[in-house]
Every structure is written in structure tokens, then in C-alpha cells.
Amino acid sequence: MIVSNRQRRILEVLLQRKEATANEIAEEVQISARTVHRDISEMKGLLSDYGLFLATKSGKGIAIQGSDDNLAQFHKVLAHFETVTYAPEERKTLILCRLLEAFEPIKLFSLAYEMRAAIPTISRDLDEIDPQLSKYKLELIRKRGYGVEIKGMEGAKRALIEWLVREYLDESDLFDPGPISSNPWTVSRRLLHMVGKDHFLSIERMLWEQEEKWPRRLTESAYMRLLLKLSIAVARMRSGHWLSSRKPGKQGHGGTADAADLPPPHLQPFIDAFPWEWPAAELEAMQELFVHAMAEAVKQEENLLHRNGAAAADAADRLIQAIGRKLNMPFDQDQSLLEGLVNHLAPAMDRLSRGEAIRNPLLAQIRKDFAVLFAAIRAAVDELPVADLVPDEEIGYLAMHFGASMERLNQLKPVRAIIVCTSGIGSSKLLAARIAKQFPRIELIGNYSWYEASRIPQTQYDLIVSTVDLPIDAGRYVKISPLLTAEETEKLRAFMGSLSIDEAAWGEEGKREDAGGWERMKQMNVYTSAIIQVLEPFAVHQLHAPHGPLSEVVSAMLAPLAADLELEGTTAVAKLLLEREQASSQAIAGTQLALFHTRSDHIRKPILKLYRLEEPLWLGEGGDYEVRRILLMLAPLQLSRPVLEILSEISVLLLQPEFEALLEDGEADAIKLYVSQELEAYIQSKWRGRDLHEHSK
Which residues are in the PRD domain (predicted)? Predict the structure, then answer.
């Protein structure tokens, strides 16, 4: 039996460890997890010849299983297997790399010599490579006496290289600071060279700096795609493979950008880092990459806002209320804060749920400038169910939103000030006139001596402006001269910006409209009605799930709900649910439960249904999640805030083991009772928190 050196190493790891995940094998053998899966698939026939088979369990790993005798026998004969330098897939990949790097045809016998294989073997490999090239509109030229070459556009060749890199390398290979030579596998070394491993980290730093300036952030996968394309483009230019000019009159790669047509600023760092003569075609192509990425970032945020809008709005409201209580700030009066948080949280929640890294180069400065605010936000987030997923980098971004809100609120609120001046009535009047002119927000209560000012209750003023040192804490007053110089003007402005806002000082207009008992009772009635609206039609269904695609399962769930959907609504809602699952699996990790949810104009009223599947459904990119129960949550796009909160709270309940157990085998009435009790407790805590806030004033 013949196996490659790499396949032999994988088999040895599995026999030694008894059981290992693809990632563990990949780390041990120093290849990608994708390559592990590919090689293991090729070795199934080999194992079956010895009465063995591969058992794969999601989350647990891969194991070679069979009788003890067969395992012992296979362990002995493995050492005597004949090995070849390259497995068939490795060899075909190396052939592609060699042809993509070449500037002229390569003789067939030269390829056979380089790959250490017979000429008929290489010919067979080329036959199998040809269809893959056709997908990229590339042509494999094979002529006797001429040799072998790949013909086609340079852009298509770069796209093929990108596919090869994604197929055979892990991100850890690309970001490894070690040299290419440290990788033990020939295919990996060849691909690392073609992707430009030696300049990859430099390009990543430049891209990161550029993306920080964009109004919208890329997802991690989109960021990685752009990074790969940029690095491959630079590597190809370095090796002399240039794009052909797209504009008339600029033939070949010799046409350079006109002096009047300067490159956009975001391309300049790349031009400076690689100071060769950049052809116009290359600049145009790189510009298109950035334009496409920026457009994708905007579209992605819009999609995420549609998918996560309800959850983002709920999280934003919770943070605004909690942080407002902690800092005694009326953040709920700043509509810009709510809108900004929702727009930020929708994509942020998506990135966090996928475990993507959050980058925040300003974190250290934010911690320093907004220490109290940062701590308050961290404490508020720690009270949320998703606290473990939220790193300090994300807290830093939230602090910037709340910090900007504090600035806006400070500009709106009048500041009550008293003047303490010992230089006489004329000096105090001069100072008062200059303050009134420079600071319209300051409401001057009067001019006093220190003896008089010390007896004024602190609740009646926000600020003391004094022309002399006072025997009190320096944080309670600002010292300036009667002339109010330019430097002192900035000093007073900074002092005003540092003032904390007491919500009570905003007067009657700033008080909560629902502070009274009657209003509170009316609001609680609204929330109770929302609970009834959501829970009353709740039902549990047994789903005879077809063995076909997920679309058939979704259609089976929606079929009985046609009366609650608009005309042709079933098809539209099914499409939304499938798109959401494709973007990010709705299965809940660690359970056999999935939450399928969406909002649409095609949905007439809130719908909450539980489906128990007779056969398991496998979700996730690789079918990693076994699902036996689906909670379907549908709602119209136009939805009252109480109903939105109720649906959000129900989704939070899915994290509770008691609720999960009820969904497994509980009756519909028992589930409704449990949910209603939890929601009642939520409403009581919501209003109790407001009461405590009112009484603390």
C-alpha cells in the first residue's frame, strides 16, 4: 500500500491519541484542518481494507475504530507502507503553482522530474486539473514539442491563487511570524511564497490603518478576503506578472498613471511601501478592491441591522438605562445616542457571536480619558447574558458613544453659577458680563462674598467662579481673573465639560413622564397585553422533517402559518430564514435547539411556535450542530416596543437549562406558564429599578 508522508503522519497521530479533532491533528502535522479532512477522506478505503473505519463526532474528534486485533495489525503494517513524496492532491497543487509561476511553457518531462512522478501520472494529473482551470476562464495548453502552460487573464490567475491559498492554508500559516522555510510541507511553502508571506504582515498593518478611517467596518471574513487579494497582487507584481491595461492607449503593463490622475489617499501607503513604477492597470484594480470592500461593508451593516435590529435596539436601551442610573445621567434624552448604539451594536453583535476578534487601537487612550465611564459600561455589560463574549476592546467603542453623548448633554443643560469676587462691585460686574457673552449656557445666580456663598445650599448651583483661592476642594470651583483672558476662557470651558449632570437639575421637563403611579400602572398593562399577544397562540408541533434540504424543513414549518402571513408571504419569509441561517447558523451551541427568527412586512402579527423534529437536523457550515427542536419567532417590521422587549426576553430564556428542558418534552401549557412567570419577573424588576432610581434622587 502506498501513502504520502503526510498521510502516514496523520495515521500515526490518530493511532497514538486514540481520538483527536481535525484542528489538533492539523497542529501536530502542521497543515490546515481542511487538508486533514481531505486526506482522511482519501484514506477511508485504505482503512476498510484492514477492517477499520473512521468515526467522526462533532465537537469530540476523529478516531480510527475497529477490533483490537485489527488495530494492532494495522499499527504493525503501517511502518512498512511504501511512501511517496506527494499525495495526488499535493502533486496537482504543486503542478498548478509551477505553471502559474512560469513565464513560458514547461516540458512535460520537466514537470515529471520536479514532481518525482512518471510522465503518464503527470498527464493524468493535468487531465484532472483542466476542469478546475475552466471555472476561472483559464485554458490549459498542452502541445507535443511545445510543453504545458496556463493561458488567460492575470486577474483570473490571481483569483485561482487565492482559492488555492484558502483551500490549503490556515490563517495561522499566514500570520506566523516565522520564515517560510520553517514550514515542513512543500505545498504550504510554495503557496506561502505565492501569497507573499514575506510582506503579508506589512500589508495587514497598512490595511488595518486604512480600515480604521472608514465609516463602516468590514467583517472578519471580508477583511481577510481583501487582505489576501492585496498581498497576492503585490506578490505577483514582485515576480513580474502584471495586469494588462484596461484603458485604450495603454498597452501592456507599461502604461503608468497620469500625473493629473493621482491615486486615492488610501493607495498611497502601498505605493510608498513598494516603490516600483505602478502601472495604471494595477492602480485601477487595487482601487476597485477598496471600492468593492467599502460597498460590502455598508451592505453588510445594512443586512446586519435588518437581522439584528431588534436585539441591538433592546441591548442599546438596556445599556442606556443601566449606565444612566450608574452615572446619574439622562442618556435616555439623547436620541442620537440610541441611534448610534443600534447602528454600532447590530454588526458588533454579529461579530461577537461568531467569535471574531475585536480590534481597538485606541483602547489604552480611552481607558485613560474615560476611566469612570469605561468602568460603568463594563459593569453594565457584565449584567447582560452575553457578558462573557464582550471584550474590553468593544467596551472602548461603547465608551466613545457614551462619551459623545455626555458632551451633547452638557451642551444642552444650563449651568447655574455664582461669582465670588473680592475686588469690588465693578470687577464682579465686568466678570459677569464677559461670562454671559462667552458662555450663554451659564445662568448667573448672583455675586457673593465667600462668607455669603458658603451658606448657599449646593443644590442651588452647579459651579463657583472665583477671583480668589477658596478654602474648599479645587474640584468645586474654578479660579479666574476679572478680565477673563483667552486662556482662562478655555479653562472655564474645560471645567464645565467635566461637570457631572444631575438629572434633577434639568427641571420638570427632564423628569420621566412615567414617574407617577398611574402612568406606571398603564405601562405595566401595556406590557401584560404584549405578553398575552405573544404567548396566547403559542403551540408545540411535531415536525415530520423531510430528508431533503433545509428549505423543505422551513417550508414545512411555515405551511400551517399561511393565514398569519400576507399573500406570497410564506416564500418571502422562508427566504429570509434561509438567508439568516446561511449567514450565521441559528443553532444554539451546546444544545439541540435552534432559534429561527426574522421580521418582515409579510408577517401580520407576532408568531411563536415550537417544532420537535422526529429526525435530527444538522446545521452549521460543516453540519456541526445537531438540532432536534426549533423555536420559530416571527414578527412584523413595525412592532411596538413592549412586544419587541418581550420577544427579546424570550430569546434570552433559551440560555436557561430549565427552559431548554421544558422545550425538550414539556407540554405547551407548561412552557407558557414558565415563560409568563419569567416575563412577569422581568417587568417587575424593570419597574422596581425605575422606582429605586426615582427615590434615589
Answer: 307-412
Provide φ and ψ at 62, rounded to 5°. -120, 140
Domain count, the chain: 5
Tens-digit pLDDT profile for residues 514-572: 344 555 566 677 788 888 888 988 999 988 765 667 888 888 888 888 777 765 678 88
DSSP 502: P
* 406 part of a folded domain: no
Q: Cα dihedral sign for 395, 401, 407, 410?
A: negative
Look at strands 607-619 and 539-543 and give their pairing.
parallel
The predicted structure's pLDDT at residue 96 = 95
Q: In this structure, what C-alpha cell is assigned to residue 432?
A: 459677569
Amino acid at 181: S
Cα–Cα distance, 58 to 61 (Å, whole number) = 7
Out of 26, 56, 84, a domain closes at 84
| Sheet with 415-420, side-by-side order of all strands | 442-448, 415-420, 463-466, 477-479
Q: Spell out the alpha helix ranges (H) of 328-391.
A: 335-353, 363-369, 371-382
Residues 6+ apart with CB under 8 A from 408: 334, 336, 337
Interatomic CA distance for residues 27 and 10, integer angstroms:
11
* pLDDT value at 60 more than 90: no
Percent helix, strand, coil in the chain (nearest 5)?
A: 60, 15, 25
Answer yes or no: do 493 and 573 share one domain.
Answer: no
Enter the DSSP assignment of 218: P
Cα separation, 63 vs 49, in Å, equals 17
* Residue 689 identity (one-letter amino acid): G
pLDDT band at 83 (very low <50, low <70, confident <90, very high): low
Q: Identity (one letter) of the amino acid at 656?
A: Q
Cβ-contact 560, 537 below 8 angstroms: no
